Amino acid sequence: MDAGPLGGGHVHLSRRDPVNGGILVVTVSFDPGKEPAGLHLMGSFEEIDFPFFPLPGRPLASAAAGAPVAARVSTWGALVGVAYDHPVGASAIYVHLDTPTSHWAVKQDIDVRLGKYKSEILKVDPTRVKPPEDALPRIEAEKEETAKTYAASVLEPFLLQGFNLPIGTAVTSRYGNKRLFNGELASYHSGVDLRARVGTPVHAAGEARVALAKNLYYTGNTVILDHGFGIFTLYGHLSKIQVAEGQRVVGGDLLGLAGATGRVTGPHLHWGAVVHGTKVNPLDLLRVTW
């Protein structure tokens, strides 16, 4: 799904028909010797800017089998999140290339499809649906704190190492489900729930920096990992947190133990993903390839 040229480069989208709540991989590649000097790449989607990061060089696809290839293609990558409430239909991603003397821009048309999301009825502590007045300042402060966390991603592409499930259990509630708490439509499910008993070890889905590790009103004991360049994963309802903010982790490292803290119907792990401030289906991270 290439389009170009972009100052001698070519833009590729992983797909043209993402669902709302999904993830797109965007790459820009230059043939050997064709990458402009002083290159600066940025993208934008629905008024959200996103940066590109360099990918490991790839040999030319046209090289004969077994032949030595000295020159490698220069490739840059980025992830884009499509919001759950994004309107169905035509939209576009823009890629901008700047050098000290030139500017190019390419528009990539996409067609957003409606995800096949279901509804579910849940019974929880009433104070977690309609919080008491004295809890509102805490909830607002936590909302602002997490927003600042998601806006301050490190510029290290940890995500190139790939992602795995934080626990190898079944999904009990999928991303995008419309949720009726105590008979009232309150929200949609912004992550996936994975089956877990209290005390089940929860592991980092990929290499990252611990951006937040604390108790939050709705998600209880929570860990947020920063995988770099605007990509985050969240681990909620833990019974115990076993990492500290600022700590570096690799995929598979222990983050804490599953539990039933916060707004829950029972023990489980809530696993979420945020891409440039947009809450997306974390299972899409498992399918990201560069």
Verbal overview:
Helix content is 5%, strand content 46%. The model has no long low-confidence stretch (mean pLDDT 87). The strands form four sheets. Strands 11, 14, 15, 16, 17, 18, 19, 20, 21 and 22 form a ten-stranded antiparallel beta sheet that branches. It has one helix at residues 136-150; strands spanning 2-6, 9-13, 23-30, 40-45, 48-51, 53-59, 72-81, 89-98, 103-112, 119-122, 171-173, 178-181, 184-188, 191-195, 201-203, 208-216, 220-226, 231-241, 248-249, 254-258, 268-275, 278-280. It starts with a strand and ends in a 10-residue tail after the last strand. It has 290 residues and is mainly beta.
Topology of helices and strands:
Elements: E1 2-6, E2 9-13, E3 23-30, E4 40-45, E5 48-51, E6 53-59, E7 72-81, E8 89-98, E9 103-112, E10 119-122, H1 136-150, E11 171-173, E12 178-181, E13 184-188, E14 191-195, E15 201-203, E16 208-216, E17 220-226, E18 231-241, E19 248-249, E20 254-258, E21 268-275, E22 278-280
Parallel strand pairs: 10-12
Antiparallel strand pairs: 1-2, 2-3, 3-7, 4-5, 4-8, 6-7, 8-9, 11-14, 12-13, 14-21, 15-20, 16-17, 16-19, 17-18, 18-20, 18-21, 21-22
Which key phrases capture this entry?
mainly beta; 290 residues; single chain; 46% strand; 22 strands; 5-stranded antiparallel β-sheet; 10-stranded antiparallel β-sheet
Q: Enumerate how many helices there are, as a single number.
A: 1
Report the β-strand fraction as a percent range.
over 45%
Q: pLDDT below 50 for ≥5 consecutive residues: which ranges? A: none
What do the pLDDT scores average to? 87
SSE pattern, N- to C-terminal: EEEEEEEEEEHEEEEEEEEEEEE
Task: Classify the helix fraction into a percent range.
Answer: under 10%
Instruction: Summarize the biggest pleated sheet.
Output: 10 strands, antiparallel
Radius of gyration: 21 Å
Tell me the span between the first and last alpha carbons: 14 Å
Shape: globular
Number of strands: 22
User: What structural category do the secondary elements indicate?
Assistant: mainly beta
